[in-house]
Each structure stands twice: as structure tokens, then as C-alpha cells.
Structure to design on (278 residues):
């Protein structure tokens, strides 16, 4: 009826017109009624044919719904609560959520960006992205990436305060640091194959790399942050990397931590991140 003729229906179904006609004949013989009035010009439904067509369409729609429901039962579903650091979440995690939502339409993504450490074991989040060494716990951890860190300052600050040539020169500078509990004002270096660290200090501490990067770009001082969080400022010359010859391969591990059996995570898409916790 949708195609208007046996020949057109046959082309759609991959059948000959006679095969379509025989199928209709068999249905009419089984029911004992005429469903179609046939002429050389058109096909017309009888009252019984109209009722049968409506019922058939309803049954096929119900069948499609049932098959879709069965198929969806095996798909991941539910609420996924994610905790991520402000800078890393905004720049590395959030850009991935659109593709994730398309791939898993039955999962409600509930993401919170904060540099406050959440308690995954207590149920405050389903998965949290953590940086640096992990404390002993019953949580499962899966490595996602590594955070390469860099020491930077603005050209204006360096013109005013001078450019440090060796790590010890930092003692004469305003060094901006993190304020969270596990962070120490100690920056690592390597000279002639020997690793060492210097204690530095300054007039401002903050809880995330983006803030420290903005302060450094504003000429406030020198800071050590995840390179990704200041990549744009380095690219356009607002920040200048310092003491790279003394960088000991300063990286921090990034893990996803969660309760239960390990899933199969995808990479975060970033080679570096801030040194804040999530």
C-alpha cells in the first residue's frame, strides 16, 4: 500500500510482482476475506484490508520496540559521577564528554570540577582523576597519562627582575606555589647527572595551575606548573620557559581511581596537566 502497486512493492522488497501477489493471495485465503480490490489503475483496501493494515503496522512497531529494548539491556546505563581538577578537567576531560555521550547515550554524565580532594571510597564520586603519588587504599587505580611540568615567567617580569641562569638564582625571585596539603615549595633539578631540589618561596600560593599561570603571565612572579595549562601563553610569548637545561624530566603521574573492577579507559588526550588533585 505504501508503494502503490505490486511491481513497485516488488522492487522495494526484492521480489517479482507475481510473488507479491501470491503472498497477498495466501493471506486472503487464510483469513477468508478480500483485503485488496485490484484494478489496472490502482489498489484499494477493503474495510477488512484497512483493519488488517493498521493491526500489522502496530504489531511491527511493537516488535521494533521490543527488539530495541532487548538490545539496550546490554548497553551501559546509569549515572557516572566524575571528579576532575579545574584546569585538567576544563582543558582535557570536558572536550571528551561529547564523544562519550554519543557512544553511551544511556549514561548520565555528572561531572564536578574541583581541586578539593573527594572521597571516592565514601561514595562522593564514582571516578576521580588524581595526580602524583597515590595513598594506600582499597581503590582501583588506572594510569591515564603523565604531567610534564615547566618553570615559566613573563617577559615583563624577567625584564624587571632578571632571568635566572641557574636554579640557585630562584632564591632572589618571587616563586609562586601551590597551597594544597601535599604540595611542598621544593622544585626539582638535575645538574651533571645529579638530581637535587631547591626550596623556593614567594608572595602568593594558589590551589590550581591555571591561577598560577595567569599570575605569572601578569608579571607577578615565576611559577612551576603543568605545561598543558600554560601552553597557549608559551605559544604566544606571554610566558617563557626557564631553566630547561636543568629540568630532570619533571613529571607527575595521572590516575583514574574508582571502586570495583577496573574498566577499559581511553587516554585523556593530553600529554601533561596541572599538579593539582581531583
Amino acid at each position: 500500500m505504501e508503494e502503490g502497486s505490486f511491481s513497485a512493492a516488488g522492487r522495494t522488497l526484492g521480489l517479482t510482482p507475481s510473488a507479491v501477489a501470491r503472498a497477498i493471495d495466501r493471506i486472503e485465503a487464510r483469513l477468508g476475506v478480500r483485503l485488496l480490490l485490484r484494478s489496472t489503475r490502482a489498489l484499494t483496501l477493503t474495510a477488512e484490508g484497512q483493519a488488517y493494515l493498521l493491526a500489522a503496522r502496530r504489531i511491527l512497531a511493537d516488535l521494533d520496540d521490543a527488539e530495541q529494548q532487548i538490545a539496550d539491556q546490554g548497553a551501559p546505563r546509569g549515572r557516572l559521577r566524575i571528579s576532575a581538577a579545574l584546569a585538567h578537567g576544563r582543558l582535557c576531560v570536558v572536550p571528551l564528554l561529547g564523544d562519550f555521550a554519543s557512544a553511551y547515550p544511556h549514561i548520565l554524565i555528572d561531572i564536578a570540577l574541583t581541586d578539593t580532594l573527594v572521597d571516592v571510597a565514601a561514595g562522593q564520586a564514582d571516578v576521580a582523576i588524581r595526580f602524583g603519588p597515590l595513598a594506600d587504599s582499597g581503590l582501583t587505580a588506572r594510569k591515564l597519562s603523565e604531567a610534564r611540568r615547566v618553570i615559566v615567567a613573563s617577559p615583563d617580569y624577567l625584564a624587571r627582575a632578571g632571568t635566572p641562569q641557574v636554579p640557585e638564582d630562584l632564591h632572589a625571585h618571587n616563586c609562586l606555589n601551590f597551597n594544597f596539603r601535599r604540595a611542598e615549595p621544593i622544585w626539582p633539578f638535575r645538574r651533571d647527572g645529579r638530581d637535587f631540589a631547591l626550596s623556593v618561596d614567594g608572595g602568593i600560593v594558589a590551589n590550581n595551575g591555571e591561577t598560577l599561570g595567569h599570575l605569572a603571565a601578569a608579571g607577578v612572579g615565576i611559577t612551576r606548573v603543568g605545561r598543558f595549562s600554560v601552553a597557549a601563553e608559551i605559544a604566544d610569548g606571554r610566558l617563557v620557559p626557564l631553566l630547561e637545561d636543568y629540568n630532570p624530566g619533571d613529571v607527575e603521574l595521572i590516575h583514574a581511581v574508582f571502586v570495583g573492577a577496573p574498566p577499559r579507559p581511553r587516554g585523556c588526550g593530553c600529554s601533561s596537566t596541572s599538579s593539582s588533585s581531583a
